[in-house]
Structure formats: structure tokens, C-alpha cells
């Protein structure tokens, strides 16, 4: 055998087109796409032959079935999406890498209807003329928070940029040194301020800032007082920060707007559900903030968005800023946001139907039941593994509540025939992409972030990988 005779054994495109399995695909894919794919796959075999070493030539043969299989696989992959559903078994509820908050199933029809049909997005039905896309959120935000006005942009980073660019361009903004945070590696408060044209005036020290530090820095060029909720880290020990109520009194005294970047947008006091107290949007406004900004897809549990609420006089100015056009959100975001806000009209409903809140408020009993169910399902398969239910900790994630480790139940697996990291890799790459942690040399599935309808899939994939 030599390479020349191997080349002569390569099937022609015509031959493969006459294969039964390939013929069956003509209805599904265009002829051109099929021919191109066949050509590419034959070419791959040709390249493989070219690269054969002399000693490999005699044992090499052209596996026709495998070639057909490859062609079909390549055809299927042309239409498969790169952005895919995964199973989050990490226990990190607001997992930025895995898409942050999940929208509620109960809003999907509302959102799809708006996405696939014409709407009154910027059309005032009463007047029969042009309207504002932000008007759709005004009534519901007023009802939920008491705020006079609302504006929504692409994300909270954009919200902070727009607020500063509108109210403080070329002027000074006073902020505590302890609040000059970086979030998610790319959002740095000092950098955003620079971009907006505002001049940063840092006051206090990293661990202590007093109200008199702010007051001493105020001058005729001061535009606003900013408070940033340090949502992804906390300074412990000898500390002093100025609360938004104290800052608001100072703002009124000097007629300066007070802005709070809250980060996560809580509408519900979650300390009622056993979590640590975090300031809510309503608290911030009640305590006197003139403008509050927060994310749509952190604890709020909505789509990615930056929500700016507060005094109408300031928000009207922001709407006129040219940047607003560049940062504007589309109808999908507005539809998902309005529908998510509506769930909050009834707190019990929000807790039950907003997945982020639901996952954060599972009771110990609910978590135990979930863990036992999955444990039993896996156990039934009699796999060659060590399987246990253990106590563990989940995280809120998304830079929210950094020190808050919430007790959970985890399933731990130690496979006997492959390594833990091999198991992790195979489950991550399998059709259903299960993302979990390895801890203490065990594969750890936190049931908090796994939906019950995903249990069967996990079992199926475990069987596939370990059989
Ligand atoms: C998360 C966060 C941001 C950035 O919000 P995005 O919606 O991710 O742009 C800004 N400020 C604070 C305090 C945050 O926690």
C-alpha cells in the first residue's frame, strides 16, 4: 500500500451524495451546503493521508461510515447556536459568566408578544403621536418605589456614566475613598467619572469617612454628592461610613443633588427571608437620595439594564443628554423589565416567581428535599462512585453581598474509575453542559441553582460519562 493508492480510494462527492443517510438530509439542508460539507470532510481525510508516516500507511484505511458520520455532525453544527443553555450547579445564584439573573417563566409570553409584533414602544396611543419608550415604566416604578421619574439604559455602568455626564460634566463630584470600587474587573468608579467629564474629589480614608469630610470639600464648583454601595467587598473593623440619610441632609443644605449607586436593585427587604439586610431602592429614596441607580439583572431578577430613578428635574435633563441615545435599551428589555416589575406588586408572588429571589430564599427543608431527590435518582443508577449529601455554602454572586455565604445542601461525587477533574470536564463539555465546582477533591453539585426538571438530565449525563 502507498499513499497514491489511498488517495485513489477516497470517495467522490457524487458517491457520498448517493449514500442513503446523506440523501435523507436533502430536505433539511440546502444542496450547496451539503456538497460543501462533503468536500470539506473528504479533504480532511486527504490531509490525514498526506500526514501519514511511512510506518502508518499499511494499517491506515478509509473509514467510510465514520466519514458519513462526520459529515452529518458538521452539518448539524452549522445550525447549532454558540450561545447555549447550561446547567448551573455552582450554587452561585447571580453568576455573571453564566448569564446573571434568569427571567421568570411567567413573563415569557408577554415578552415574546412584544418582540414579534409591532408595539406602542414610542407611540402615544391616546394622542396618536410620537411617545417615549421610557413612559411604559413610569407608573409601575412610581407605584413600587414612590420615585417621580425613571430612565433605563443598557446597564448600571452606563447609568452611572449618564448621571455624572449630565449633572457633573466639568464639575466636581465628592465621593468617599472607601467607595472607589472596581466591579467585575472593568467597571471602576474613578475611570467612569473620568469618562463622564466629572472631576473626582475623594474624601476621607479607606476605612473612615465622616460627614465633615464631605462638607469641607464642598465649593462653588461642586456638582453632586455620590454614594456607591460597596457591593462586592466590605471593610471590617475600625470603620465609619456616611449613610445616605446624613448625606442627603448635607445635600439639601448646599442645594446639591445626592446620588446613590446601589448596584443591586432590591425592592424587597430580604432580611425577612433569613438573609443579611441590604439597603433597598425604596429605603434609599426614603432616606433622601435624589437619584438612585441599580442593575436590572442582579437581585432584581430582570433583564440586563441600568435603572435610574428619582427626581424628575434631574431625569428630564438626562433624557436630553445625547449619550442617552447611545445607551438606549431596546423593546425586549423594556418588555421584560415592565413584566418583572409587575411581579413585585405582590411580594409573595415575586419571591415565588422571580428565579433569583426564589433561589435565594429556599428554606433548609426545601433544599434538603431537593438534595434527597437528586441523591436517590443518582443512587438508583448504581454507578461506580462515592455519593453523598453534604452541607455546603451557596453564594449570591454578581458582586452582591460578598460575605454572605448561605447554607445549602450539595451532592458530592467521587468517581472511582476516572478522576474528579475528568468528570468535571466531561460533564462541562457534554450535550447539556453541566457547570459545577470541585471542592476537597469531590465533584460538588449545589442543588440551590439547579432546577428540578434538570435532575433527570444530570442523571442521564452522569450515566453517559461513567458507564
Ligand atoms: C454591579 C455594579 C455596577 C455595574 O452594574 P452593571 O449592571 O453590571 O453595569 C455598578 N455599581 C455597583 C455598586 C455595582 O454593584
TrEMBL record:
InterPro entries linked to this entry = PyrdxlP-dep_Trfase (IPR015424), PyrdxlP-dep_Trfase_major (IPR015421), SelA-like (IPR018319), SelA_trans (IPR004534), SelA_trans_N_dom (IPR025862)
- Location(s) in or outside the cell: Cytoplasm
Query: Which reaction is recorded as catalysed by this protein?
Result: L-seryl-tRNA(Sec) + selenophosphate + H(+) = L-selenocysteinyl-tRNA(Sec) + phosphate
Which domain of life does the UniProt lineage start with? Bacteria
What pathway does the annotation place this protein in? Aminoacyl-tRNA biosynthesis; selenocysteinyl-tRNA(Sec) biosynthesis; selenocysteinyl-tRNA(Sec) from L-seryl-tRNA(Sec) (bacterial route): step 1/1
Known EC number:
2.9.1.1
Per the record, GO CC terms?
Answer: cytoplasm
PTM-bearing positions, type N6-(pyridoxal phosphate)lysine: 298
Coarsely, its chief localization is: cytoplasm
Q: Which keywords describe this protein according to UniProt?
A: Cytoplasm, Protein biosynthesis, Pyridoxal phosphate, Selenium, Transferase
Q: Where is the L-seryl-tRNA selenium transferase N-terminal domain?
A: 7-46
Which BP terms does GO give this entry?
conversion of seryl-tRNAsec to selenocys-tRNAsec; selenocysteine incorporation
GO MF terms listed in the record are:
L-seryl-tRNA(Sec) selenium transferase activity
Cofactor(s) required, per the database record: pyridoxal 5'-phosphate
Q: Which family does it belong to?
A: Belongs to the SelA family.
* Function according to Swiss-Prot or TrEMBL: Converts seryl-tRNA(Sec) to selenocysteinyl-tRNA(Sec) required for selenoprotein biosynthesis.
What protein does this entry describe?
L-seryl-tRNA(Sec) selenium transferase
Q: Taxonomic classification, please? A: Bacteria, Bacillati, Bacillota, Clostridia, Peptostreptococcales
Amino acid at each position: 500500500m502507498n499513499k497514491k493508492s489511498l488517495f485513489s480510494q477516497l470517495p467522490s462527492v457524487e458517491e457520498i451524495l448517493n449514500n442513503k443517510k446523506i440523501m435523507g438530509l436533502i430536505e433539511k439542508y440546502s444542496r450547496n451546503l451539503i456538497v460543501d460539507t462533503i468536500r470539506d470532510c473528504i479533504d480532511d481525510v486527504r490531509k490525514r493521508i498526506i500526514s501519514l508516516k511511512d510506518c502508518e500507511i499499511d494499517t491506515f484505511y478509509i473509514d467510510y461510515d465514520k466519514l458519513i458520520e462526520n459529515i452529518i455532525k458538521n452539518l448539524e453544527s452549522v445550525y447549532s447556536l454558540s450561545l447555549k443553555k447550561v446547567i448551573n450547579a455552582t450554587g452561585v445564584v447571580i453568576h455573571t459568566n453564566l448569564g446573571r439573573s434568569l427571567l421568570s417563566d411567567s413573563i415569557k409570553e408577554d415578552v415574546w408578544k412584544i418582540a414579534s409584533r409591532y408595539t406602542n414602544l414610542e407611540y402615544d396611543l391616546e394622542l396618536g403621536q410620537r411617545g417615549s419608550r421610557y413612559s411604559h415604566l413610569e407608573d409601575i416604578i412610581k407605584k413600587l418605589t414612590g420615585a417621580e421619574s425613571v430612565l433605563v439604559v443598557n446597564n448600571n455602568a452606563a447609568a452611572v456614566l449618564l448621571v455624572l455626564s449630565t449633572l457633573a460634566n466639568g464639575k466636581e463630584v465628592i465621593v468617599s475613598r472607601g467607595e472607589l470600587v472596581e466591579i467585575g474587573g472593568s467597571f471602576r468608579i474613578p475611570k467612569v467619572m473620568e469618562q463622564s467629564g466629572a472631576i473626582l474629589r475623594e474624601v476621607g480614608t479607606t476605612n473612615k469617612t465622616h460627614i465633615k469630610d464631605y462638607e469641607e470639600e464642598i465649593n462653588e464648583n461642586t456638582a453632586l454628592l455620590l454614594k456607591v454601595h460597596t457591593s462586592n467587598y466590605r471593610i471590617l473593623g475600625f470603620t465609619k461610613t456616611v449613610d445616605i440619610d446624613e448625606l442627603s441632609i448635607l445635600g439639601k443644605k448646599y442645594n446639591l443633588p445626592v446620588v446613590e449607586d446601589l448596584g443591586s436593585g432590591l425592592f424587597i427587604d430580604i432580611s425577612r427571608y433569613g438573609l443579611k439586610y441590604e439597603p433597598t431602592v425604596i429605603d434609599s429614596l426614603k432616606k433622601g437620595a435624589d437619584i438612585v441607580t441599580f442593575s436590572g439583572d442582579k437581585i432584581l431578577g430582570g433583564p440586563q439594564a441600568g435603572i435610574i430613578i428619582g427626581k424628575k428635574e434631574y431625569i428630564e435633563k438626562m433624557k436630553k443628554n445625547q449619550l442617552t441615545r447611545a445607551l438606549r435599551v431596546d423593546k425586549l428589555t423594556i418588555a421584560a423589565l415592565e413584566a418583572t416589575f409587575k411581579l413585585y406588586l405582590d411580594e409573595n408572588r415575586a419571591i415565588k416567581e422571580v428565579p433569583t429571589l426564589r433561589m435565594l430564599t429556599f428554606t433548609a427543608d426545601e433544599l434538603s428535599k431537593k438534595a434527597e431527590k437528586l441523591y436517590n435518582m443518582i443512587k438508583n443508577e448504581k454507578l461506580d462512585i462515592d455519593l453523598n449529601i453534604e452541607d455546603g455554602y451557596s453564594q449570591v454572586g454578581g458582586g452582591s453581598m460578598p460575605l454572605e455565604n448561605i447554607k445549602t445542601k450539595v451532592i458530592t461525587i467521587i468517581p472511582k474509575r476516572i478522576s474528579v477533574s475528568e468528570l468535571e470536564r466531561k460533564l462541562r463539555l457534554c450535550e447539556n453542559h453541566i457547570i459545577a465546582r470541585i471542592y476537597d477533591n469531590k465533584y460538588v453539585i449545589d442543588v440551590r441553582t439547579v432546577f428540578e426538571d434538570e435532575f433527570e438530565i444530570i442523571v442521564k449525563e452522569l450515566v453517559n460519562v461513567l458507564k
